[in-house]
Each structure stands twice: as structure tokens, then as C-alpha cells.
Amino acid sequence: MSAVVLTAYLFVACPAPTDDPVRVTVVIVLASTEHTVTDPKLKELAKEVQKRDPKLTGFKLVATECKSIPVGGAATIALTDLQVLKLQVDKAKDEHGRISLTLNPPGMDAVTYACACDKFFPVVTPHRTKLGEQLIIAVMAKPCAAKK
Questions:
Q1: Which helix (H) or strand (E) holds 47?
Q2: Is residue 16 part of a domain?
Q3: At 141, is the secondary structure helix, strand, or coil?
Q4: Is the dihedral angle over the CA atoms 22, 140, 2, 125 positive or is it negative?
Q5: What is the pLDDT of residue 8?
Q6: What is the tens place of the pLDDT at every residue in 82-93?
């Protein structure tokens, strides 16, 4: 699934990164087959997810979490229903401006990818809430500034 650009203000409240750590932003979303209401901030994400699963028609923003993680470091982010996302910053920005991350989403094997600057990587997890909503996470890593 391609990376998705989410509305910039989803991560504005996150603290600015320092030179060493990488700022990782995780957007927690619940998708439903029971309604068609989609948070306007999730419009682009919904389009991308629906390419793979058109039955998901409603998308709700649950939370946005930010962590400052040093290269080689890891963090755990609380999701919904006592689920957690474990993530690690594997490599600093490469020549294409991408940062390598490894994610361990609930109910899935580890996913390693190069995160493009200002793009969210969506992951549709197999976890469903008691109400039948499907857990989706979208992850982005920064810094994005060009080397001086």
C-alpha cells in the first residue's frame, strides 16, 4: 500500500525533533463497515485503505501520538483495547531522505520499511474492537530537513 499524506495538523502538536532523535508520529484510526462517516482529516487515508478493502466505509480519528526516538532505539505506543505498537528506528535518513523503521503492529509480523518524509505509511491491522471496528495505524518519521 502506498504512503499517504495526512493533513499536516495531525502532527503539529508534536515536539520538534533534536539533531539526533527521529520524531515518529503515529495516527490511530478505527474503521467501520457499519457507517459512512469519515473524519475530514482522514479523507486521503480512507481512499487508500478502500482500494484494498472497499467494505470499510467509516473512518474515525482516535488519537495522534508522537515519540522522539534515537536511531537504534525503540518505543511502545498504546493503541486501543490494550493493544500496543512496538516500533524501532533502524537507520537514519538515507540519501533519498528516508528513515528506516521496523513496526510490530498487533496481530501481525514485523514490518520494516523506509519512511518517506511527510508521508504516512498506513497499516490495516487484523484487530477489531468489540464494536467490530478495525484498527488502522499510520506512521511517519521525521526529520525531513535537507543536510546543511
A1: helix 43-52
A2: yes
A3: strand
A4: positive
A5: 43
A6: 999 999 999 988
Residue 116 is classified by DSSP as P
Q: Assess if residue 95 is contained within a domain.
A: yes
Buried residues in 82-108 as b, exposed as e (16+ CB within 10 A): ebebebbbeeebeeebbbbbebebbee
**Structural domain includes residue 121:** yes
What average pLDDT is seen over the chain?
Answer: 86
1 lies in some domain: no
- Spatial strand order of the sheet with 22-32 comes to 58-69, 22-32, 134-142, 121-128
Q: Are 34 and 62 in contact (CB under 8 A)?
A: no
- Residue 41: HSE in the Cβ half-sphere, 13 Å Cα cutoff: 15
Q: How many domains, the chain? A: 1
Structure confidence by residue, pLDDT tens digits, 127-148: 999 999 999 999 999 875 444 4
Residue 91 cell numbers, joined:
537507520
What domain range includes position 110? 8-142
Amino acid identity of residue 84, one-letter, is: V
What does the pLDDT look like over 99-110, one tens digit per residue? 999 999 999 999
